[in-house]
Design a protein that fits this description.
Shape: flat
Low-confidence stretches: none
Strand content: 15-25%
CATH architecture of the largest domain: 3-Layer(aba) Sandwich
CATH superfamily of the largest domain: P-loop containing nucleotide triphosphate hydrolases
Distance between the termini: 29 Å
Radius of gyration: 23 Å
Strand order of the largest sheet: 2-4-1-5-6-7
Number of strands: 12
Number of helices: 13
Bound molecules: guanosine-5'-triphosphate, magnesium ion
């Protein structure tokens, strides 16, 4: 899973990226501002895994991961500018966005529009993305119409449906609504997935609120679905991310920080993407696996290994919540809480699975 970090110049994208990843990338003060992309894969903190690890005492503990990509250089006008194609490619490839809005005031750091105004900045980039999607929709429509003209009756009949669907997308975008708020059938959604429309992707709005700012004052809820918001003292958390655990604890105490926004941000971005986790647990390894919401037991088994999906017989299942309550796998089994599930079972977030299979 890849999340792209976007936002206006000097909003603090690289700072937030550093806070998330503990990286030591140079912030814009020292880079050229050219097209530049950095990415880092980090583990998703999960208290359930910590707890499972304490119960099973495995040789190895494995968390799920998420990749953050720092995409520099987003500005008003990019939608129609010279780099638009290359930019759109990068943006289209991520699974969702982390949209950084500048909330901090600092005379030494110029704001592209002069004054701090997170709501305006959100609307600006949302507007650019609408425009980029509108251009992609138009380009596709043109291609379809060309094909129909050239091939006449030999043209694929499904192109007519596609043209209708794209008319619908266009009308919605022209109404200045992001595609994430357009209701589509499952088939329609699948049909447009490959186009990577920017306004259809989930977005976590992150307000970089500045030092000592009261977290709650800057919260800004985006006016569309598949979105959430969170605020963070970016510069401060980026510094803390460089410290070892003991120093970080001291630092947090000194500044009166109870909880870092970092973990909340990672969890929120994970949830926003609609990803769920199931676990496998034993003496060798306790491990979290991500799967898409709604996956069946064989599909979940396939996340572990394709052989397990092919040879799937049944899954032994019990929920993490039961284990947390009863304390051990032995107690789960004694209480009759372990179930045997077949091919149609839809795996739930927090299920602990043992796959029985033919090898
Ligand atoms: N005072 C203050 N300065 C910050 C904060 N966050 C970032 N900065 C500073 O703002 C400047 C820009 O931050 P970056 O993280 O480089 O911003 P960016 O969005 O990556 O910028 P570009 O990559 O050029 O688009 C740097 O000098 C940071 O040190 C903050 O919370 N408070
Ligand atoms: Mg940057």
């Amino acid at each position: 899973m890849r999340l792209g970090i976007i936002g206006l110049p000097n909003s603090g994208k690289t700072t937030i990226y550093n806070a998330l990843t503990g990286g030591e990338l140079l912030t814009s003060a020292a880079t050229t501002g050219q097209f530049e992309i950095n990415s880092a894969t980090i583990r998703v903190p999960d208290l359930r895994i910590d707890h499972l690890s304490a119960i099973y005492q495995p040789r190895k503990t494995t968390y799920t991961h998420i990749t953050y990509v720092d995409i520099a250089g987003l500005e008003e006008g990019i939608g129609a500018g010279a780099l638009a194609g290359q930019f759109r490619n990068e943006l289209a490839q991520v699974d969702g966005f982390l949209h950084v809005l500048r909330g901090f005031d600092d005379e030494r750091v110029p704001h592209p529009y002069g004054a701090v105004d997170p709501a305006r900045d959100l609307a600006t980039i949302d507007g650019e993305f609408l425009l980029m999607d509108l251009l992609s929709v138009g380009a596709r429509q043109e291609r379809i119409e060309n094909e129909r003209r050239v091939k006449g009756k030999r043209a694929d009949p499904s192109l007519t449906d596609e043209l209708l669907l794209f008319e619908k997308l266009k009308a919605h975008l022209e109404d200045e609504q992001p595609l994430r708020s357009l209701r589509l059938s499952r088939a329609e959604d699948k049909r447009i997935r490959g186009f990577g429309f920017l306004t259809r992707k989930s977005v976590l709005v992150v307000i970089n609120s500045g030092d000592g700012a009261d977290d709650s004052t800057h919260l800004l809820d985006p006016p569309y679905p598949k979105a959430a918001s969170v605020s963070i003292q970016g510069a401060l958390e980026a510094e803390i991310a460089q410290l070892d655990a003991a120093d970080a604890a001291l630092f947090m105490e000194e500044y009166g920080i109870v909880e870092l926004s970092r973990s909340r941000m990672i969890r929120l971005s994970y949830d926003l993407l609609g990803i769920r986790s199931f676990f496998t647990a034993g003496q060798d390894e306790v491990r979290a696996w991500s799967f898409p919401d709604g996956a069946t037991a064989p599909q979940a088994a396939g996340v572990i290994h394709s052989d397990l999906q092919r040879g799937f017989i049944r899954a032994e299942v019990f929920p993490y919540a039961d284990l947390a309550e009863l304390g051990s796998e032995f107690a789960i089994k004694s209480a009759g809480k372990q179930r045997l599930e077949g091919k149609d079972y839809r795996v739930l977030d927090g299920d602990i699975l043992n796959i029985r299979h033919n090898s």
